[in-house]
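Message: Just now I want nothing more than another pair of eyes on a protein record. I am handing you a single protein, as its sequence and its fold in token form. As I understand it, each token names a local backbone shape. Take your time, and here it is.
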Amino acid sequence: MEPITEGQPSTSKEPTSPSSPPQKKNITPVGLGSYCMEIGISEENILSEYLLPQPVLKNGTVIELYNFCSKKLSLHVFCEVMKKIVQPDVRDGESIDINRALKLKGRRLHTQYTTMKRNHKDTTTLMEEMYKHPQRSSTTPRNITPRKKRLMNVIQEKNSKISTLKRKLVEKEKKNKNMEEEVIVHKAEKEILESTLLKAINDLEKMSGSAHGNNKDELDMLEAKVNMKTSEIDNLTKKLAKINPANMGKKIQRRDQKIAQLETSLQEKEEEIEGLSMEKEKLQAEKVKIEVKLSEVQEKKRKLGRLVSYHRMKNTGKARAIAFQSESDALEEEIRECRERLKRLNKENRDLQEMILFLEEEKSVATFKDGKYKEEVREVYMKLLNLNVGRRNIESVIRVVLGKLAGMDIDRLPSEALTSRIFVEAKLLAEMQAARAMVIGTGNTIHFDETSKFGDRFGSMQITTETGSYVLGLFSMDCGESERLFHYLKQTLTDVASSLSEGDDSQSQFAKVVFGFINTMTDRHCTNIKVDELLVQWRNELAPRLFENFNQLSPSAQRDLTHVNSLKCNLHFLLGLASEANNGLTAFENMSRKGPFKPGSRFVKEGESGSVRLVRTVCKSFERHGSEEAGVMTNFAAFLNEINSQSKLISFKGNRFNVLFWNGAATYYHKSNFESFFCIHGVPNRLLRAVKEDLEDIIHVAGCRALGIIDKLITGPFWRVLEKDEPYVALNDRLHHMQIKFQEWAEDATPLLNEERLFQDVEVHKDCLYKAVFKETNDTLLDTLTVEAIELIMSQFCLVVVRQLSEHLPGGSLSNITEKLQEETRYAPKTNQLGESVFGTMDYLLRQRPSASDVNLASTIMYRYNHTGSWLSTLSSDEKSKLMATARKRARLTIETFGERRKEVKKRIFEKMMKKKREREMKEAKLSDVKRQIITEVNNVGGEWLAVEDMNEKLDAMSNNGDKRAALSWQIKYHKTVLNTNVPDKKLLQLSSQGKVYSNEQLVNNLSTIIQYVRLTKDALGNTDVSEETVCTVKSAEERKKMFEAKKKEMKWKLGELKAQKQKSAESKAKRDAHETEKQTKTIIPKGKKTKLKPDFLVGKRVEHTFQDEDDPTKYETYFGTITRIVKSGTKRVSDTIYEIVYDVTDNSDDDSSDTDVSDGEEEPETCFQYPLLEDYFDGCLKVIDD
């Protein structure tokens, strides 16, 4: 027996008596049981009309009847049988309510019985209990729902109002009848009045009749409306009584849901109706007042008639007629005003009635048409998803907004799965938008970059056109190598081209996209620079296939079609300035400090200057995003609030480019605040002690002041220059001017301390930080140290300008500004800020949606940055429908494609991981062999030399210079490879430098320095005391001047070397470009000459080999070596032959080191490489110098 969930079972039960339980009677699941048999009811006579009434009835009988009727017959039969055997007190019009009460009572008993049976409880007490049939209440039946009760109250109120209106109508009719009799009586007397008086009286009668007719019509209309509502309620009640019990559970569930919706809607409408009813009552009161005034007017009319009779008898009819005429005019005016007011009130009443009808109508929004959701629905979903509304909450948001604000209902909305697919459609629409802008634009610039977020590597690609900037794609990457980044860029461009392809036009659309840009904008990383070269190479390969007449064009025309202008982000130049500022401050501190630096409580990082450390620890302690464990951000903010000040520190996270210089100025500005705060709060942890110790060091304070001056006069104005609406090539003059000023300030930085500007036409923000760093200190030593720090920083800036801005300086690739270059870079931005913004948004989304897929992130960012929603609103309805249909068709394929690409990325990551594992194992095995050999050789010369005296003794025992050199070499290699000794100068661990082999005397000096440094380091580690005195002692001015002059000479020499390298690189590039042009014109090497070359002609030759530097692509280095053998012969082409070459040991950088002694002729495995050298030979990068 399946329970029915509607209604709550009765919880009142009498306690059972376990001592003498009555005999338990069971009922069958469907048939009638023993309780019905006791009173003579069986399946044969249940429909009989002669069932006897029962004075006493048990619950078991009712439960059996309800069970049988609900299964076999109907609940209507149950009600009829119950009325026969119970005979309830039924009045006229209450039969429907009694039926409902009997059903509800039977259902409750049946539900209680089934619940007890299911829980294995004793049902005997319930079955034997006397049945209490529903009692008719004096007000409303007990089984009437609150909604029906409210409706009955409304009906009762309407009936009472109708009765009142009927009573008033009878009174009005009676009054009208009396008035008509009086008019007949006085009709003869009115004949003696003048025609004007007669006309006025007729007008009054017409007005009275009109008012009476309007009132009667309104009452009739209200009565008809009440009757209509009453008939609707009766019809609904009859329909409810005729409901078929089949599938009752599902119907009741649907009914309950519908009732809940209707009750909510009804409650809102009832509140509105209540307000309208109050308004209607006010109108009724106004109407009553008007009727009272009308009665008064009629009374005055009767009095006037009596006066006429009186004055007729007094023979003063004419005078009285004049007076009556004036009073009649006044009454006529008053009646006219009442009529206008009544007309206005009737209009308001009609408006309110129309509003009631509007609210009572059931309104809904259609969302589904022709087997799919409407485009408006999909567009709303796209916009809500773009506003960060979760896909699980979109349906609720739409329903709440429509229901609460518009009173409307909506039946069907997309599921979560379809919502995700709509999100992909948004991505495809944004892609189409960007592709269209890319095709029609001129002078386009593409941006690309890559980054790492939470262990995953991502890349992005954008484009800037004359109409704006757009995001082309966001994708996952397996690594950050140039070739892989270029692969994903090709993939993105192919996707963009496919969004424009239609049928046979795909090739032309692909050509428009691939050749639809002339500039690239990247940061200054070597990976991105290499991508530019691969991009040009790819376009050279595609051009002959995509353009029919490409081979017939001249070389210059071909180059114009395939080349790109490699533009660099100038904001990343600020990062280079920050790095070099740290290097300059490190040199400044080393030359200014007298004696060794004592760290105390400070956190010393390798390569970090003390001033930069102070800025970092200050932000960690006092900035509001600082350390949660040791920071005092809240206490410091309260302290500043007390003195009416605010913190000027900003977070390093999210402020990448100028943050070091800004926070340097803020640290100097808050120095006195920090000292006062420490007096109040104390320094309870090591972080605060480190800040306090650095603040007491005048060298670090001077460094922070120098950073602040650079921020206010150099980096800040330069950033504002980048934000100006100027062409990209307009930076050339400014950057050249910057180079000149840096060189001047490197010689004498006093003008900077006197507020000399870098750019005279750029605003300088003279805020509180500006006033603090330029405020007179009356401290000569601080001012002197600040100038010295700035001079060394400017010397470092000169180096970074030449390294990173060489293309803008005279002789650079962008220095020759032609009309063509100006036109090509007309719409090019000066920074790659768009790419940084995209990655910032992606970082935020990954924190908000940790499980978001790649396509979800791409859809959000592309739809938001491209403003696709606004773009769709500008399209015609037909064009928008076409685009949305295309996106709908391609959505599934796009989801599958992104999934496959993600799998491919994971697969490549795993393969790369396994490859690194194999390489690491080979390297460890190789290193182990090298260490074993070094240890053996060191043991042969008496083991490690621990002291300089020991070294001298061992060397004196050797007579051969070759043995001495070998012993020195093995000892140095032992320190470098086996002990991993860290020394300040890496050159000490080398055997040669700048291509020159060290002499034995140099090796002795280097090894002596290494041994002494190792001993000092061990002593320092054994005597470390964090509580030691950390007071700084500054060297004298003479000592500092000597060291500064030497350092400046060194920096000038480095600058000259760097310029020479840049010039050499430019010349090499020019040669290669000319060589490429010759190759395109097929004049470099005759085709037959290549084929006649024998691969073995290079074997045994000494060669000069030129390479491009991996870290700086603009830099080229030359190595010398000998080709030893052929490793693998080329099968298809001779140029594919692989050679083995052994390079001479040289050192072209200060950071790299070599372990090979050339004079010994010892062979190191690192110098042996395998390359296809014929290609380099043909390209001019390999020259034979010894035949």
